[in-house]
């Protein structure tokens, strides 16, 4: 983890197994989440060696039993990442498959290089994509394409992912870190509490609106930062 004032950079670094997500990585990412819950900042997560994450560690996955599935090992982590207070950015170079794709789906933004690929081949291994893909992917790209990916093993290229807005931008490999920094900087220009409450509003169920929005806005109306930012805006226009 590279720690900054308004953001952290997380590198998935198990190149010998294509950054496969194992129990140790899950534990490490929970520690990152705990830190970002305690001190909220933007998170950028990326891979190494031309791979984002090629899935869960199959050697570990083969030995897991019913109790492990019910414990929600990966789904619990990805839900926690999705609920982090500040926005999250997945910077994806190369394959994001299986659990690696589900990790990317859990982030608020996805940037990709031309060699990025997205897929969920779990059914071919006798299991299902149970860590978020069955519902997040449908929300992100629509049910027809989600079914192709989950039921027919379709792998989506970076170009296709951009066309369906699964990714926000495609940039050359050597420009990916800078693109993630630019996006993080754009986000960081905004008021942190406004970002946090907006993210909560986006995740709220339909029945919570508009009351949730009204209450959140009431909180923001009383902040010193709102007054200072609006005063600066008005003075700039004089």
Automatic annotation (TrEMBL):
GO molecular function: isomerase activity
InterPro entries, per database record: ClpP/crotonase-like_dom_sf, Enoyl-CoA_hydra/iso
Entry keywords, A to Z: Isomerase
Example GO biological process: fatty acid beta-oxidation
Name of the protein: Enoyl-CoA hydratase/isomerase family protein
Protein species of origin: Nonomuraea turkmeniaca
């Amino acid at each position: 983890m590279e720690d900054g004032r308004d953001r952290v950079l997380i590198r998935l670094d198990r190149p010998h197994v294509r950054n496969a997500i194992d129990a140790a990585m899950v534990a490490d990412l929970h520690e990152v989440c705990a830190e970002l819950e305690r001190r909220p900042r933007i998170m950028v997560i990326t891979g190494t060696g031309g791979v984002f994450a090629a899935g869960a560690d199959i050697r570990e996955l083969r030995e897991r039993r019913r109790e492990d599935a019910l414990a929600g090992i990966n789904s619990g982590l990805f839900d926690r990442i999705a609920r982090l207070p500040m926005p999250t950015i997945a910077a994806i170079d190369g394959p994001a498959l299986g659990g690696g794709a589900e990790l990317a789906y859990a982030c608020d933004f996805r940037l990709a290089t031309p060699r990025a690929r997205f897929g969920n081949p779990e059914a071919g291994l006798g299991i299902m994509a149970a860590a978020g893909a069955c519902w997040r992917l449908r929300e992100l790209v629509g049910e027809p394409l989600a079914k192709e990916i989950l039921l027919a093993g379709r792998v989506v290229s970076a170009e296709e992912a951009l066309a369906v807005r699964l990714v926000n931008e495609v940039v050359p490999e050597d420009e990916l870190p800078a693109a993630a920094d630019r996006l993080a900087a754009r986000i960081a220009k905004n008021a942190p509490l406004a970002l946090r409450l907006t993210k909560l509003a986006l995740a709220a169920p339909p029945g919570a609106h508009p009351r949730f929005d009204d209450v959140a806005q009431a909180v923001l109306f009383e902040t010193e930062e709102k007054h200072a930012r609006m005063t600066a805006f008005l003075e700039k226009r004089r």
